[in-house]
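[stage:ingest] chain + small molecule (zinc ion)
[stage:ingest] validated
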Amino acid sequence: MVEDLWPAALAEPWDAVGPVVGRRDSAVGTIHFAVDPVSEVVEEACAAGADLLITHHPLLLRGVTTVEAGTFKGEVVHRLIESGCALLTAHTNGDSAVGGVNDVLSEILGLQDAEPLHPAAEGLAEEGLGRIGTLPRGTTLGEFAATVFGILPAVAGGVRVAGDRDGFVQRVALCGGAGDSLLSAAREAEADVYITADLRHHPASEAREAVRGRRPYLIDVSHFASEWLWLPAAAQTLDRALADRGYDVEIAVSGINTDPWDFFVVGGP
Ligand SMILES: [Zn+2]
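[stage:predict] done
[stage:export] tokens:
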């Protein structure tokens, strides 16, 4: 079922998606959704009696040589197995899919005629990384950034903006999670503004230089927040798909903020 909604074929070649912990033939009555498979989330899922935890981010993306319980990843693996809770990842396949991370962001922002910024090599025309679309009405960068701030879950870092506060924006490019690889795609698509997360100094600086301070402007948001928005939609989609096939499964979404930053210091008195 998960494979129908978020096909593994849509995942990027470097990614690791699908089952991580558990047996494929185990019965599942309760599912828990979260962005990160961190210990607090795993505790939450196990305490809720979940049979399956679906996370956006992989637990074991890079190679490990041990899952001994003294390591934090090993402890997570042990806690899951000992609690009878499986773990499954829907990462870049969850980004690219129809109804995935980028579609949800695009819908919440009210973008019209949205299409992928980087279409999937294999798949439907609607599938791929990032989205580009148009706001029903143009606005200023400052107001639009406030809208973006308002729709995202609250995090310590807020949102950072590069560009003229009074500049006009209507054509919007976005990519949930770390999207600096699509900076040039946003420019080539003639976006007025590009929303993504984890923008580092050099890619951001060079993107601003390349357009001489003009559009696309940049809005840098919390990685966690940009992807959390997908969870309620994904839970609802999976719930409906399972109900259509006659399965009665309880699905919950984690309320834990797994953005790693705790507070933010700004200048001034
Ligand atoms: Zn991510």
